[in-house]
């Protein structure tokens, strides 16, 4: 046994993706990568610090246990953890029954029988919801007499369980093994999301759950649910049931009932995933108009209404009455602290055609600038949503149009061209931001486009020095002492909770860049729905989104594309083995191919 | 009932893809097509002649029957037909049990209770295999007292059953209905194929069968099984079992046993589909070398073997002994009259490095022209295969290199650039050809690429007049009588069965173009395996390949892209309803979405 340690340590890394008795010949084009063993095994995304030794332990399904450590703040009563133990046990050992006999068997010396899980914070957050400030860190030690997983909260513990399961491999005799390992891990970015669009095609709940499951395998923590849009309104609102009755593709078979939504949220919570719903207005609302009279702007053809409708009608009080009630419901249905309010791609042509809008523009002194009308609407909407105690995310146009935003607003950068400049602008204005521009996964192309997503870097923009910061840098570099007041001229007031801007200013931060980069809280891979539905969504998303997962979780210098290819090849086979039809990276095979069609 | 006929006739066409009680709003981009009713309903591919009236009949699962006509040459003993009845009954009515009570119910006046199926040729071909010369035509009349399907052979009957099932719709009350209809149909091209590649990724038999099933729904009739290639050799040969033992990704889980191959062939036969296996040599053979010593050329690095191997070694007698035995097996395992012998993309660098090859080149007087060595090999291989009484297909390079081909050879045109010129060259040399160049479905791109495949036209090349044909045209256009001898100078001999060339020459055919275009016998959609396996193959293939299906079956002037969009949208929902994860064309929905993930 001891003599074959080295071999075992290496063999295991190959074994997920290689077969028996023969070498791999995977490429038929010379410039293509070859699957090889990575020193980090099949870990994905790569932990911040990881040390895998060459000492293997055996794991046997009949005797292995997850155990709540005695001093853990979450124990048997924490159903989130108990549920996770069951899930990972099944991933690791399959769903085969424990053999009763084996329970009295004395474990062998090189056997690992226990993973102790210790939640270290007084509040484990077991019954809470994950949030943007949740601590997701964990430490994992695999050693004798037992492995230990320590995490301040259950959210870190979930990630640690995933990592633990990824350390498992089969040795050359098919025995489940794990090497002595030390890992210390935390995410680089707090917001790591996937956008799915259930309007252009309805996504059965089963499909959403399968993808939440897969998100957890990739340490994603935000499901951005672009739930309604022009083509259909599948959200069944208790307050306005006619929205889906009239606006869904079908009022029964193509809607999300309150029970469905609840199930999605709880399923996500159990996996450490936030559900941020998007109700995009004033554009992208054609489907809203079917069930809510007067909500949309009637378009005119000459002096007569054409019968078509444009964006939400921003000049009627009824619009805001509706939004108040609607978002009151949304804020109570969705527990997350954020709602995504959209605000992208507003087409002004219908507004321009409508004589009542024209009159209103004149009254307000907007001139011909319809972005002012858009801002007028959004401003009122933001106030409504703020009154529900929710924060909001918005697409970048809202920021670009100069709408006054609350200081905790998250600006979502999506436009491909100039996204670096946009990131720079948004953060120099002091707003938090998330990046999606390089990660529009609905756009497909031949071959290994995951590499393109992998190489995108959210912090590759130039920061903007504030003038006073440059001055501070000059003064101190000349050796003088200095005192700062610029960010604290409290006679200057601005909209919203400006105390936070004052609070965040750091007299020692002379480099705008660094301060700005702290405002980049993450990113999202977006899979818009024009060309995907239940038939093809899952293989189109995975493992392409996995590339984004590692970019957002792992350290900035984790950029070795060959090592990534090797680990990701094995990670995708693991997803397949867990029942997820994740598509192949290139010619090769998985020991257990996907069973389905 | 009568009053609502028109509505019913229209409603039905919408119903496959639309829901209840609301209009369709499918597009959010103005230049995108909208799903509308086509006057041809959901028929795909469009039959040659079709007349759908507005007179509907009801179909009731409990009383509807497929009946063999009394004067049919295939009756209850034809299990191919009986199997097809069962299959189409299930497609049409689901697998719900017949209700015993209903059997004694007297059918209503507007009810259609029977489709009579009459095979008109003395030989129905029920127990045969479909072939390139099979008659696939059929005539379908849907009327009272029963519908009639007439076809010379079972192959036409299968297509007719598919068409019949496509005429079914649900009226506004959900009742299954069919309109009085007259159809006369036959394929434009005899060879309508799909290439699947089971070497770059192993495709479980289940996946292959599901795609054969879907091919039948699209009237494809050739499964081109690119079964082995560089990465793996999953074909389990009885004669040389070591080929898959050593060359497959895994010797047990990633091979096709003789029983698997038999099952695939029979499953295909029952659906009117030929199975043409490809054993590509001398290149693309890395996996062959693992189980067959000395088959591949040892590459040299300087004066020493490098350990790597190149194409099949063409200078050893053992190579040809092997090929003789191997193709003897292949010719008995695969019943089709054709074998695809590959012959594409031979890399000369390894041959160039090998001193024995260099010596052989000199002995043969090949100079530095390695394509002569390639032809030397292929020529011998063709002789071997011809001796097994099989015809062969080859990739275009074999023709380009000037190899002498038997007159019944099918040249497979695949290289994208210059494919029109290639079609012209191949056919002016008198060879049959099939086209794949515009239909490499492994190449993907954003949005509706099916339109690109749909617009490709196999006969869009310029013909080459033979000199004597120009002369004939000149003479006759001047009003003189003439007599032809040029193609029949029998003192001029050439390799192979040149009597066929003589036989085919038509003294009345002055237009090289027309004669050439008759030599285009069809095309194939190719889904190479680098980036597809069981996880994503089916939705990637369908409905994109359906575009090719209509191009190869329907009349040349069926080119209305909007009508195609409408019919194809409904056809794809029908595939989904039959359990096939065919991906969406654009934002929209199916009444019954795919159930799976």
Explain what this protein looks like in three dimensions.
Chains A, B: Belongs to the glycosyl hydrolase 20 family. Chains A, B: This is Beta-hexosaminidase. Chains A, B: Residues 43-167 form the Beta-hexosaminidase eukaryotic type N-terminal domain. Chains A, B: Pfam families: Glyco_hydro_20 (PF00728), Glycohydro_20b2 (PF14845). Chains A, B: Its EC number is 3.2.1.52. Two copies of one chain form a homodimer. With 597 residues, the first copy, chain A, is α/β, with parallel strands linked by helices. Helix content of chain A is 33%, strand content 17%. Chain A has 19 helices and 17 strands. Chain A has helices at 5-15, 79-93, 154-167, 205-217, 242-247, 258-269, 317-333, 349-353, 355-364, 370-386, 396-400, 419-428, 450-455, 467-477, 499-504, 512-518, 537-541, 544-553, 561-577; strands at 49-58, 65-68, 114-119, 138-142, 147-151, 169-170, 176-185, 191-197, 222-226, 274-281, 296-301, 304-312, 338-342, 391-395, 410-413, 432-435, 520-527. In chain A, the strands form three sheets. The first copy, chain A, has an eight-stranded parallel β-barrel with strand order 8-9-10-13-14-15-16-17, surrounded by six helices. The longest helix of chain A is centred in the middle third of the chain and has 17 residues, at 317-333. The interface between A and B is large, with 63 and 63 residues.
């Amino acid at each position: 046994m001891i003599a074959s340690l080295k071999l075992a340590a290496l063999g295991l890394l190959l074994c997920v993706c290689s077969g028996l008795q023969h070498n791999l010949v995977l490429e038929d084009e010379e410039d293509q990568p070859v699957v090889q063993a990575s020193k980090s095994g099949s870990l994905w995304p790569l932990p911040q610090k990881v040390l895998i030794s060459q000492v293997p332990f055996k794991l046997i399904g009949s005797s292995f246990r997850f155990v709540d450590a005695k001093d853990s703040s979450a124990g048997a009563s924490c159903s989130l953890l108990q549920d996770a133990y069951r899930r990972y046990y099944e991933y690791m050992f399959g769903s085969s029954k424990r053999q009763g006999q084996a329970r009295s068997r004395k474990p062998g010396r090189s056997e690992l029988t226990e993973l102790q899980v210790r939640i270290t914070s007084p509040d484990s957050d077991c019954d809470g919801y994950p949030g943007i400030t949740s601590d997701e860190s964990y430490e994992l030690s695999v050693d004798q007499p037992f492995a230990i997983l320590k995490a301040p909260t259950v959210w870190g513990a979930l990630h640690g369980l995933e990592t633990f399961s990824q350390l498992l491999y089969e040795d050359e005799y098919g025995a489940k093994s794990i090497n002595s390992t030390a890992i210390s891990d935390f995410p680089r970015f707090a917001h790591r999301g996937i956008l799915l669009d259930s309007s252009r095609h309805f996504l059965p709940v089963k499909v959403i759950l399968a993808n939440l499951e897969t998100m957890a395998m990739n340490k994603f923590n935000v499901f951005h649910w672009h739930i309604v849009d022009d083509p259909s309104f599948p959200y069944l609102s208790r307050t306005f049931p006619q929205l889906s009755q009239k606006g869904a593709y079908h009022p029964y078979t193509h809607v999300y009932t309150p029970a469905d939504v609840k199930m999605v949220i709880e399923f996500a919570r159990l996996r450490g995933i936030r559900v941020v719903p998007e109700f995009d207005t004033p554009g992208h609302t054609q489907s809203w108009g079917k069930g809510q009279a007067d909500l949309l702007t009637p378009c005119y053809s000459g002096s007569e209404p054409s019968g078509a409708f444009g964006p939400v009608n921003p000049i009627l009080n009824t619009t805001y009455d509706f939004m108040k009630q609607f978002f009151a419901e949304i804020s109570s249905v969705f527990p997350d602290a954020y709602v995504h309010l959209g605000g992208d791609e507003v087409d002004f042509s219908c507004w321009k055609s409508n004589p009542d809008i024209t009159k209103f523009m004149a009254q307000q002194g907007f001139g011909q600038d319809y972005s002012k009308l858009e801002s007028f609407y959004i401003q009122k909407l933001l106030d409504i949503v703020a009154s529900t105690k929710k924060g909001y995310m918005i697409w970048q146009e809202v920021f670009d149009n100069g709408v006054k935003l609350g200081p905790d607003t998250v600006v979502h950068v999506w436009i491909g061209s100039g996204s670096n400049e946009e990131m720079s602008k948004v953060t120099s204005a002091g707003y938090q931001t998330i990046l999606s521009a390089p990660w529009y996964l609905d756009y497909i192309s031949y071959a290994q486009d995951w590499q393109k997503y992998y190489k995108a870097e959210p912090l590759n923009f130039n920061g903007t020095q504030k003038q006073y910061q440059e001055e501070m840098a000059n003064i101190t570099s000349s050796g003088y002492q200095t005192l700062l007041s610029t960010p604290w001229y409290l006679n200057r007031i601005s909209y919203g909770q400006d105390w936070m801007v004052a609070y965040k200013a750091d007299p020692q931060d002379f480099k705008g860049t660094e301060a700005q980069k702290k405002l980049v809280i993450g990113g999202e891979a977006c899979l818009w729905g024009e060309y995907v539905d239940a038939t093809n969504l899952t293989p189109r998303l995975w493992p392409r989104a996995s590339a984004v997962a590692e970019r957002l979780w792992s350290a900035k210098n984790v950029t070795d594309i060959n090592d990534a290819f090797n680990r990701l090849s094995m990670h995708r086979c693991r997803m397949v083995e867990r029942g997820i039809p994740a598509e192949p990276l290139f010619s090769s095979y998985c020991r257990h191919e996907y069973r389905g069609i």
